[in-house]
Amino acid sequence: MSSRFSFNATDAHIIELSKYRQIAFPQNQRRPVQIGIDIGGSLAKVVWYSQNKNSYAATGGRLNFTKFETENIEKCIEFLKEIIKKDNNENGSMSKRILKATGGGAHKFNKLLNDELNVIVETEDEMECLIIGLNFLVHKIPYEVFTYSETEAEPMVFEEKVIDEEELYPYILVNIGSGVSIIKVTENGKFERIGGSSLGGGTLWGLLSLVTNAQTFDEMLELSKKGHNENVDMLVGDIYGGDYSKIGLKNTAIASSCGKIFRKKPEDRKKVKEEDISRSLLYMISNNLSQIAYLMAQLHQVKRIYFGGCFIRGHPVIMNSLSFGIRFWSKGTIKALFLRHEGYLGALGAFLKHHGNIQEQELLGFSENFTKAERINTTAVNAVGLIDIVPKLTYFPLISSDEYHPDTFDLTNPELQKYWIDTFDKNLHKMVDMALTWQSTHYVNNIENTKIFEDIYRKHLQVLRREPNAYGPLSVRSLLILREQCLHEMGFGDIFEHVKQEEKESALETLPNLLKKIDALPEYEKLGVLIDNVLAGNMFDWGANEVHNMLQKGELNFDSAKTKVKKSEKYFNLNEFRERLDSGPQHKRAVIFVDNSGADIVLGIIPFARYLLNRGTEVILAANTHPCVNDVTYTDLLEIIEKVCTFDDIINDAYNKFGRLMIHETGSGSPCLDLRNINCDLANVCESVDLVIIEGMGRAMHTNFHAKFICDSLKLAVFKNASVAKTLGGNMYDGICLFERGETSLGGIRAKARRSTFSEILETGRFSFSC
Ligand SMILES: Nc1ncnc2c1ncn2[C@@H]1O[C@H](COP(=O)(O)OP(=O)(O)OP(=O)(O)O)[C@@H](O)[C@H]1O
Ligand SMILES: CC(C)(CO)[C@@H](O)C(=O)NCCC(=O)O
Fold first, then answer.
1. Contact indicator for 527, 574 with CB cutoff of 8 Å
2. Phi, psi (deg, nearest 5) at residue 178
3. Which ligand is closest in space to the CA of residue 341?
4. In order of start, what are the domains of the chain with their CATH numbers?
5. What is the ipTM of this complex?
6. What spatial distance separates the first Cα and last Cα of the chain, rounded to whole Å?
7. What is the pLDDT of residues 21-34, one digit of tens each?
């Protein structure tokens, strides 16, 4: 089967998930490079922090991952020397650094590391580091954990981040390195190594080195993919002539690994294919481990079994046989859990042991960055991976259900998958054109970077065509985020800046007159006109292909947009909103998640916000932190409001005098809105919000269309994509205005169990409620 795990690693422009796993630290974090290393019997794994200068996104830092064969420890040391030298050049020479090291090699090579690197090597316990690393990934990295089964249409099924401790403990970790350690974890900081096995990854590597001509472990695994184990394994059918149904053994079950070889004549034994024997040995090790893992879980009455260690390396056959074994032995009651950063648990744990890192995590958010454009360091076994470290994000406090999921469309349907991947592929050239224009207006002459951007994104799309869930569940949101990451990684900033600037200026010129006209309307007509204006403004969306074409040809202006947008038959209940405004208690505070710059924000949203302010409702405008398409960013919005303040007293007073108009950043850089990850300051000011307004196709259709809130909510958007319209039951350019009363408005109790934070979990080991 083709999969993300077999992507061509020699390609310099793309970070394949299994081999490049960076995790991205927030801006303004200046600190010396910190390194964690886990030197095992087979491989030395390195995790280090680097500042994220290359990226336009305001991500201040990044966790990088790489590994070397322990046999070549000197290459690893050279690599570490380079990292330290680079950091000395950038941040100034430091006094002796601390290197956090774990694994057997931290002891064995202690003196060598000390002498060669001129560092203080602090040795950390291997088992403890594995658990710290695992807990970090499970709590902090989106879609880190997944189950795997080839019998399902979609083999990889991702788990949400585990936030509550009760969900997590007790668990066992089966860490398959050279040898195997099995660790039971019952609560934060409480663990015990309950067993192990010497039949592990080193065993397979050793045996395959003996029976194949392959040079590297990866070549050996490749061989196993092509092999047929039934040529060497004795199956139940070989003994019974069919199934042994009485005890539930099918004829295809392996009765005796390698058990057919002894029957062969000595001259035929040499003809056994290396592919077949590789496959057989791989099953032998994996099946044995799944059985031991299950027995351990039984003995200790544990339901969660995580598999870690480089042995797994996202290899489908290994994962499938471990999964199958656990499912088989547990009669389907337990599922094997895998991790996308499975080989780095120990090194990550050692890294996090640097002073303050564990507490610090609570202040930070982490996102995965799949993209890197530098030439790969060829001395490493598998180059580097990336995790970006971003300012801390949190749950939006007004979501009413724990079932909240941002994405509206389930892209498990192959037709929809193809449609969306094709759509982004076809539109890519438009982004490239924008990137080129952006370069020319910034006097940057680096066509190569635009080409690399195009290349990287297209290659990611190719990966996704083969393995749609390679980077976590596929959604329109994930495709959009990936595109932004690729742009940012190549140093592109706000590539729609010129478009936004022009549209903003022209809209600001129109605004005073528009406000006058609205003010002159009879009171009962105002709301309808304001909502029409928001929907017309929302047409100015350079991210929607159809509209992009119109805008580029100059075929759209505010008036023509107003005639183009029709009211959706199915999703337009303005009257209910009007009735609520007229008869219910006045809303105290509204938050508006805004969308595009130009006419959208200036002629649509600002007059509507002004109307709410006039009615006595405070208004928070929540705009993206980072640029994406022509969405208005937090900094754009500050500028716009300051301009509006120069000619409109209502906005000026509310913003400058009374603080009744507030502007906040969402923490996002996407046209979609994931309300599980909102800037903490915004979440805090939204605690007292009783009206949530979400605007735009990305925020209110691709995402949040089904979101329910504990307070009143209003979704405003226009169908600008035919597939979205068809799937949701609307027509192209229908405007939706969806008002829904919240539990509080209906008299319900406003209460919600908040989620425990990671530091609480780590530090107190107790379950608690907090932001
Ligand atoms: N590119 C690779 N090169 C070598 N081994 C690999 C590679 N990819 C996966 N492996 C497998 O991973 C195993 C090593 O896993 P890991 O790095 O987790 O263990 P380790 O830390 O070296 O061992 P231990 O913890 O037992 O000391 C190897 O024995 C081999 O089976
Ligand atoms: C010796 C370690 C802990 C080194 O990581 C590992 O290789 C292992 O757990 N080996 C298995 C030893 C045993 O329990 O049989």
1. yes
2. -65, -50
3. 1
4. 23-131+345-391 (3.30.420.40), 172-188+193-232+272-338 (3.30.420.40), 509-764 (3.40.50.10880)
5. 0.93
6. 43
7. 556 654 444 456 78
Ligand 2, atom nearest to 181 Cα: 9
Q: How far is the CA of 196 from the centre of ligand 2 (A)?
A: 6
pLDDT band at 16; cut points 50, 70, 90: very low
Using the atom order of ligand 2, give the atom closest to the CA of residue 178.
7
Rounded mean pLDDT of the chain? 86
391 lines ligand 2 (CB under 6 A): no
Long-range contacts of 14-17 (CB under 8 A, 24+ apart): 14/371, 14/455, 14/456, 14/459, 14/460, 14/463, 15/369, 15/370, 15/371, 15/372, 15/385, 15/386, 16/463, 17/314, 17/340, 17/370, 17/463, 17/470, 17/471
How far is ligand 2, taken at its centre, from the CA of residue 197, in Å? 7
**Peptide bond connecting 627 to the previous residue in cis, omega within 30 degrees of 0:** no
**Alpha-carbon gap, residue 483 to 506, rounded angstroms:** 29
Cα(225) to ligand 2 centroid in Å equals 27
pLDDT digits (tens, 9 = 90+) for 33-82: 789 999 999 999 999 988 765 444 445 677 889 999 999 999 999 999 99
Distance 173 CA to ligand 1 centre (A): 16
Helix, strand or coil, per DSSP, at residue 67: strand
Q: For 308-342, give the DSSP string.
A: ESTTTTT-HHHHHHHHHHHHHHTTTS--EEEETTG
Predicted TM-score of the model (pTM): 0.78
Q: In terms of Cα–Cα distance, which of 471, 214, 216, 202 is closest to 310?
A: 202
